[in-house]
Amino acid sequence: MTDLFNLLGAYLHDVFVIKFDGWVILGFVAQAMFTMRFVVQWIASERARKSVIPVAFWFFSIGGGILLLIYALYRRDPVFIAGQAFGLIVYFRNMYFIILHGRQTAA
């Protein structure tokens, strides 16, 4: 059992101490931004007392998605790259609809 704890400790030290650099900081910032979209959506839905997706959700999605894609490209992770790249298409498309709908409302 002691060996298991030593291996776990060595693994965590390697991941969170030795490999900690500017790229890891970027990854954490990106993940925090990406997570904020859920916080914003939750607060907006609680205030409206129904499910709401505010525009800020899409801004956080795009910002976090771009930063996570940069991080994934640096890490050379094909699964992470494909997931973030596809997500960005969806986020930008939703922003397009929001802009289009705003123009139609103004007209």
From TrEMBL:
Organism expressing this protein natively: Rhodopseudomonas faecalis
Record-annotated membrane-spanning stretches: 20-40, 52-74, 80-100
Record-level GO cellular component terms: membrane
Keyword annotations of the record: Membrane, Transmembrane, Transmembrane helix
Gene Ontology molecular function: any one: lipid-A-disaccharide synthase activity
Alphabetical list of Pfam families matching this protein: LAB_N (PF07578)
Coiled coil: none
BP term (GO), one: lipid A biosynthetic process
Claim: Magnesium is one of the keywords in the record: no
SMART domains, sorted: LAB_N (SM01259)
Lipid A biosynthesis N-terminal domain location: 26-97
Protein name: Lipid-A-disaccharide synthase-like uncharacterized protein
Keyword ATP-binding: no
